[in-house]
Amino acid sequence: MAQENDSNEISTKFSKLNVNALEFVPSFASSTTSAAAAAAAAVVTPTAAGTPTAPLTTGTSSSGGGNTPTSAAATPTPPSSSAAPVPMDAKGDEEAKTPENNESEPLDSWDAEEDSILTPEDEEMDLDDGDVDGDSVAKVSKKKVPKVEESKSKKEHVNVVFIGHVDAGKSTIGGQIMSLTGMVDKRTLEKYEREAREKSRESWYLSWALDTNQEERDKGKTVEVGRAYFETEKKHFTILDAPGHKSFVPNMIGGAAQADLAVLVISARKGEFETGFDRGGQTREHAMLAKTAGVKHLVVLVNKMDDPTVNWDVERYNECKDKILPYLKKLGFNPTKDLTFMPCSGITGMGLKEQISESICPWYRGPAFIPFIDELPSLNRKTDGPFIMPIVDKYKDMGTVLMGKVESGTAKKGINLLVMPNRTQVSVDQLWSDDEEVTAVGPGENVKIKVKGIEEEDVSPGFVLCDASNPIKTGKVFDAQVVILEHKSIICAGYSAVMHIHCAAEEITVKALICLVDKKTGEKSKTRPRFVKQDQVAIMRIECSGLICLEQFKLFPQMGRFTLRDENKTIAIGKVLKVIE
């Protein structure tokens, strides 16, 4: 107390002068603040949550300096008022440390919420928590908040790829959906509209929400797969906006490989549908690539119905539909189950969110696009398998950030994973699901994962991030069943092409033809064929130029299906039967 009296005297002297002691005598700060802190602690102890107040004194000693200590110590009552606000924080900290109190613990319980969405099984949570938090306290809080689990929507993640011929209106529909669901604010769109008008391209402004770089905007053509997301009551959708131009088909394959649902956009405008659908148009190729990429459901949007040449004419709609239907059936889409046609207009937004009004379109009374995809049955995903994520893209950002879609399993912050095929062990530093930071990710989500332990140069698209204890198979030589779709000449041993499998593109050569498969009966030929030609199905041994990650089709379809391309055309599709070496 001697010290306190001492400091009291000093501070009273200073308060008479009405100046802040700190400005003159820096050493004075330490003595008074500790005194003020002691006084404050004495006052506040009853209010703090009945916890020992040792931390409080330290808590205030730093910030107590800010309160003009003069008044605090000079008059007996103010300490509570001037110094109390500071300990309040400290009190909050105290509470956060005590797991009993769930109210003032937003962060921790939020983490737990995130986890609870992604890990339905509590056992899994128990197992993994050990690695993530050595902190038993955090664990307690996670277990203690079963209430919160329900409050957060368990939205299913669905990846939608927009495909179709160049200029069918894919980016515009994507942009329109984002503006209808409120993902792009009005001001941004008005800015785009102004800029587009300056370039006398005012009908392009919606597509700029997805075509972000300058080149894409100047030419009005998508080059890379644009990504964005929107949410409905039930689901969280990621839009993948694929390029329609035939030079960028490889990019489009990478986009389709991540999709669960494909939207084939066709233009109803006179002449545009025909160019897109005839030989050499991208409508056919894209639909086929989507099927081979394993898209479960195809929605065909007949766009530009508001065009003066169409004017919501039912005959034109049916004409487009009847022309394309046989081809889609041939690809293996079942019109009753996984094919849906709907008319819409991307630029006006009709038929996307609300049903088209009867005055404009009396003949189509089906649902609009967004409600329809929202009602689709949910997909079964492998939550329990080992973690697998094919890498679509990577960039440097204070570490290496890998992008891709999680195909199976879950990953949490802090766990160790492997990058295959070069077997580099990495640890997960941060996770984002559609640009929102999360603590765990599950299958079907489009994620960015920041990893430590590998340089950005050492990763290329097509590598796979997978579970360290159960890594994915890699191989150079494999047997595959291949369907030749269109190829003018014959294919024999020694033929080379580019193979796209999940997100990887690799040069391959056909080592040997093993047998032909009868399309109707599925019987295999007894003799080895010398060649295969268009529309035949063959089993062949294929050798890649480098090691790639792949898996038998029957064990894991996403990692076992591929397309073969040559001379800018897709010539064949196939599935991996077994990995040889």
Protein model, in words:
With 581 residues, the protein is α+β, with helices and mostly antiparallel strands. The chain has 19 helices and 21 strands. The chain has a 6-stranded mixed β-sheet, with helices on both faces. Strands 7-8-14-11-10-15 form a 6-stranded antiparallel β-barrel. A 6-stranded antiparallel barrel has the order 16-19-18-17-20-21. The chain is globular, with a radius of gyration of 31 Å.
Oligomer: single chain
* Overall spatial form: globular
User: Order of strands side by side in the largest beta sheet?
Assistant: 2-3-1-4-5-6
Q: How many β strands by DSSP?
A: 21
Mean pLDDT: 76
Range of strand content: 25-35%
Low-confidence stretches: 28-153
Assign a percent range to the helix content.
25-40%
Major sheet attributes:
6 strands, mixed
State the distance separating the first and last CA atoms: 82 Å
CA radius of gyration is: 31 Å
Structural class comes to alpha+beta
Number of helices: 19
